[in-house]
Amino acid sequence: MKYFIANWKANKNADDALAWSDDFLKLTEKSEKVKNLLERKLIKVIICPPLTLIYPLKERIKRITNICLGCQNFSLYEKGAYTGENPVQSLVGIAEYAIIGHSERRLKFGEDQETVNKKIDLAQKYGIEPIVCISCKKEWDSLKKPVKLVAFEPLEAIGSGNNMPVKKVIDFRQNLKINDGTEFIYGGSVNEKNIPQYALSDRINGFLVGGASLDPLSFFNIIKES
Ligand code: PGA
């Protein structure tokens, strides 16, 4: 199975999100190829919008198999008197996946490895699959538990247009010595033009797409071209 993960970051309001989903679903339903891959569960699409947009999207996307929702973050606190926090339990039944350890959280919000490990525990406790982002081997080595999805996102490739060449991505994967139970995702300036080079490799099990996921056609083309 190949994963296509849309990370909208802090973009879009409810109207934008619903318009995006209408356009994306129409494109998908019109494409025999993509529809077929989804129905046969050969690909999975995970849309990760800002938290408040998850619920309205849930209703829209349910008509197509293997398209689901993820969150970009959740609270480090499990429950209780933490005004303003979004606990992971509030996502149960809505989000199936959670991006954890994105470099923007690490660098702009001071999330350290202990936080990342704690969030992995919380997500797994509530049945939400972590998508753990790493930008270097040290972050991989600091994970306390096996995870099913790891997303390698080199810092210099994120949002820069400088996607890492496929050979370097595969070398990085090799160096991690990941086991068969872990899917290896690449993220960093993936777009519809550079996707074919990655898609040819069976060492890369999916893509985490930021900027190019904001436009439904670009995101759809990434899936179609791969
Ligand atoms: P990008 O972002 O595709 O815009 O580089 C990827 C990410 O930060 O997840």
CATH architecture: Alpha-Beta Barrel
Radius of gyration: 17 Å
Could you report the average pLDDT, rounded to the nearest whole number? Answer: 97
**Count of discrete alpha- or pi-helical segments spanning 4 or more residues:** 9
| Main sheet specs | 8 strands, parallel, barrel
| Bound small molecules, deduplicated | 2-phosphoglycolic acid
Shape: globular
Helix content: 25-40%
State the low-pLDDT regions, or none. none
- The CATH superfamily name is Aldolase class I
Counting structural domains, the number is: 1
Please identify the top-level CATH class.
Answer: Alpha Beta
User: Helix/strand/pairing class, anyone?
Assistant: alpha/beta
The spatial strand order of the largest sheet comes to: 1-2-3-4-5-6-7-8
Instruction: Please report the distance between the alpha carbons of the first and last residues.
Output: 12 Å
- CATH topology grouping: TIM Barrel
